[in-house]
Amino acid sequence: MSFSRPLMRLRLRAKQLLGWRLRRNRDNPRIRHDLGVIFIHIPKTGGNSVTRALTGIPKRGESLSPQIGKHAKAEEVRFLLGRKAWDRCFSFALVRNPWDLMVSCYHWWIQKAPQLPYHRRHSRRIARMGSFDRFIRSRYGTGMINERPGDLFDWYTDGRRTIVDYVGRLENIEEDWREICGRAGIPHVEMPHINPSRRGSYVEYYDSGTKELVARRFARTIETFGYEFGDGE
Predict the structure, then answer these.
(1) Taking the model in full, what pTM does it have?
(2) Of 78, 86, 156, 228, which is most buried by a Cβ count within 10 Å?
(3) 178-218 pLDDT, tens per residue?
(4) Domain span at residue 28?
(5) How many domains is the chain partitioned into structurally?
(6) Does 232 map to a domain?
């Protein structure tokens, strides 16, 4: 499975024709129209902690949104909300060292996914691989982040340029969260740490070949944010 932007746009157009924008809910903590904030939740980048922090900020009024998935990409969210609603809000995302990210994804499939009925078949398949080396060379490691197809770049861009207002780094989350709160004009609340995985240093999972696989896959994000193998260790 790989991410296809043309296919995503086709699906979005189908949703529009089906009146998707008319389907509303009243509780999407990642899209806070009352605060003027949109959070793009890339899997395994601290998003549950950010969502919990946003939930802790009192509502300032009604905040209606279409039914948008937890890990929807920025281009999807912008389309489903409409450009006017998107442009009125401060949008942001967090990224993570890609080598660390993929080790975290591997452990998500081993530790968390077996508890989720929809993902059990895939988690069993990955468990049978028996090693991170085989996982990172599989379609799960070369084209997905957790169960979602795409690379980090796909979440915060439209395929060419960054379309969110701010991209922070998980490794700098405390400082970047203060920056986000300040720029968005929202109260600063403490950032909880949710869903830590149980594992050792990510560096220990790689050899020269798998290190290069990840470097090629996430080259645009690595270049943009200056990530290096071994950061944070």
Answers:
(1) 0.88
(2) 156
(3) 999 999 999 999 888 766 666 789 999 999 999 999 999 99
(4) 5-96+151-184
(5) 2
(6) no
